[in-house]
Amino acid sequence: MFPRPPRTEERLRRPIKLAIGDVIEDMKFVSGDDFEWNSTASVIYGQDLRFVTLRNVEIVTTETRFLPRWHDDVPPPGDGPGVPTFLSGLRLARGAHVELDGVYVRGFPRNGIYASGMVQSTFRDIRVSLCHVGLYFHHGVPSYDCLLERIDAGDTWGAALDIAPSVKYPGQAIGGPAALLGGLRNCVVRNVSAVGEHSGLKLVNPQEVICTSLRSPTMMIQGDFDANHPEEPARNVVVEKSTFDKATGSGHVADDANSMQISFNVESVGILDCSFVAGGRNGHAIQLVGDTNAYVGDCTIAGFNGTRGGAPAHALELVGNATINEDFETANRFYDQDRLILRPGPLS
Question: Is residue 2 part of a domain?
């Protein structure tokens, strides 16, 4: 990232609809109690877009806490102006040659940035915080030939105070993933920082995807959200030169979840030259669950000696018919690691 021109601030009272060829530069859009929302569910939105650019743009609300009325799934009848429970900062559906360069989003009850069906598009120098999900690519509408780089997705907030109380923001709850990247096809993801309070960094049904220089307490790679597999598995995914240090996060996921979980119909994934550090927290370093095949090599795994679900934690847990390279124990480096591989039996 580099110094950018000052942004001109504009108080938004209605959503902005993007059109083909639009360029928005050097702007700060603020939404508050007088924002007259509509069914577009976003401050800035567009669909079937071509050659659209947002450069050095900030999209924020005036809210600094997750509001009590955001706990409802839909706004109550007669709900007036303001920031409604379903509002996202930026929503892009079906676009080609879209460029986001230097976009900052903060303070929304749903997604910071939502994208689906993107083609040959670039998301660069993106910063998202205090949204329920930071950056969300929908896995049901795949995106092709995209570049995602220099992404900084930090703390998320949400409604589940009973199961995910915030440490950094007392009286509030932790939200969803810092980045949930679904349906990526032939894409590159690099230089992503997802540290802080959130429920992880997640890829869903990726195919032909290379991820380089990621930094997060935890990560998940899934063929689908559950064991009901999609028509095609996730496949040919590489995660390399990345660091998963649980000490860089806080909250229930950083404390107890596995550092990396790969699950539900992942045909082939390579984890190469990565570091997994427990940082005094619980959970396995890596867990493979059902219909999953992975190669893990040239990685460093350190200190996963706590517990996972009440049982001793390991460097690797295999569940069901998941498979790992036979030389896992010699192809990687282990420091202060008491237990290596756990094979608990069939998937229940």
Answer: no
What total number of domains does the chain contain? 1
**Parent domain of 155:** 17-342
Largest CA distance in the chain: 63
* 149, pLDDT greater than 50: yes
User: What Å distances lie between residue 104 and 54, 90, 107, 167, CA to CA?
Assistant: 11, 10, 11, 24
- What is the rounded distance in angstroms from the CA atom of residue 156 to the CA atom of residue 111? 10
Torsion of CA 133, 139, 143, 147, to 10 degrees: 40
Residue 343: how many other CB atoms lie within 10 Å: 11
Backbone angles phi and psi of 191, in degrees to 5: 55, 65
- d(CA 124, CA 140) in angstroms, rounded, equals 23
pLDDT of residue 204: 95
B/e letters for 255-280, b = 16+ CB within 10 Å, e = fewer, are: bbbbbbbbbbbbbebebbebbbbbbe
Provide the pLDDT confidence category of residue 230 given band limits of 50, 70 and 90.
Answer: low
Cα angle 150, 152, 155 (rounded to 5 degrees) comes to 170
Residue type, 51: F
CB 342 within 8 Å of CB 316: yes
Whole-angstrom distance, CA of residue 68 vs CA of residue 172 = 10
Residue 227's pLDDT is 62
Q: Calculate mean pLDDT across residues 20-38.
A: 93
Residue 11 within a domain: no
Residue 172 lies in a domain: yes
> What CATH number is associated with residue 52?
2.160.20
For the segment 231-244, what is each residue's pLDDT rounded down to a tens digit?
689 999 999 999 99
Q: Residues 119, 122, 128, 134: what is their CA dihedral angle, to the nearest 10 degrees?
A: 20
Residue with tokens 């899934």: 222
Which tokens sit at 263?
């699950």
Residue 174 domain-assigned (yes or no): yes
Distance CA 334, CA 299 (A): 8
pLDDT digits (tens, 9 = 90+) for 237-289: 999 999 999 999 988 888 899 999 999 899 999 999 999 999 999 999 999 99
